[in-house]
Design a protein that fits this description.
CATH class: Mainly Beta
Number of helices: 6
Number of strands: 11
CATH superfamily: L,D-transpeptidase catalytic domain-like
Shape: globular
Strand order of the largest sheet: 3-4-5-10-8-7-6-11
Strand content: 15-25%
Number of domains: 1
Order of helices and strands: EEHHHHEEEEEEEEHEH
Structural class: alpha+beta
Helix content: 10-25%
Distance between the termini: 15 Å
CATH architecture: Beta Barrel
Radius of gyration: 19 Å
Largest sheet: 8 strands, mixed, barrel
Amino acid sequence: MYACGGTHAPKELPATDSVACDDYTDTIVVEDEPAAPEIVTLDHDVSAAEELMEFMRGSEHWEEYQRGIIPRIAEQSVEYAQKLLASSYPYFIIVDKGSRYVILYNRFGEEIDRYRMCCSSKYGTKHAKRDNRTPEGFFAAGLTYDSTDWLYTDDDGKTSPVKGQFGPRFIRVTNPVTTQVGIHGTCAPWSLGGRSSHGCIRIHNDNIMKLVEFVTPGTPIIINPSDRDQAVNRDEGYNVVQLVLGKKKKESRTEEKPDTIQNVILTDSLPQRSDSIPECETPDPLIPEEHDSTRTTNIPDRPTTNEPI
């Protein structure tokens, strides 16, 4: 059994779960999963893509690897491909900021599904709290929470009465900067496909309920920068891997695409309102581009009413 998440990290995947016991007061016990069929994983460091290809070609699952994305990743980042091949988890996720999709893969890199998403309004990788950016790099999933009743509290301590801003589930994304970033649902499906969050990754509520069925603490999550993100990273002196994933294969039917993304819609970080709104059922006001960008989504250290799941 494991407590506080992250202790089931694969051999080559750094156990950098930011959701540590001293970050919140709740701890949970995760029951051991039933034993899965033995899968041979990479158990040593490599220095070249060809070594990774030899490992895959020598595997009984070579046909699956051929159909998947890992050989393409190996050509671009030996580090990323090595971590994926060493992973003991059955799935991994790529959050592609360029196409604005969250893409779910099986362990061999075959695409399972993809979901339209919304990420940060500002470009470049996250390197400080309150910078309104989505972190980029190779991370792991933390705990999954029932976020149905979560309320947003801004940096001044003001809490919005609007429920539903995080959707029904919240998957924490472990990263060295903050514990406040995750993949979650939204009460603003029209914002999907745009860039208007304060750092979190929003997907449709139906899709977050699908995704959580595949994710356990430690599941690899790659957040891939767009060209514009990468340009900002270079200007600021940050060296972040950027993967070319190729053209998309399919799109989930439950997604709602916005007609326009010109306006910045902030729904996982709404300001305090004077009127009490019990549920997030009506369109929230558009926040102009000159809005206060110093706010950041303040994920509660412990859920308002619900325990981690």
